[in-house]
Amino acid sequence: MFGIGMPELVIIMVLALIVIGPQKLPELAKSLGKGLGEFKKATDDFQRSVQVETKGEEQKEQQPTVTSSVPEHATTIGPVEYDTVDKQEAVNKPPTIPDMIKINAV
Asked: Region Disordered: which residues (predicted)?
């Protein structure tokens, strides 16, 4: 523990008791403990965020790039022809089974 042994720690505690006094020492110890706890929490959050960032960078580096093996002329689509249906008729009349077969066959 930072090269401080038990005798040195006792001397520091006695000096703190003399300098600060018995009434203020518990308050000081409490605030010091809270401060150390907040510092530990902040360092843990910082470490966690650094780990998340490094994992994200590693995953981006490991992802393979996707290239297309399809020739460029094969990816174009020609004009598509659809059966023309009267729009008003399609709105007013629900489709029948033969109409659905005709639509799926196209």
From this structure: 47-81
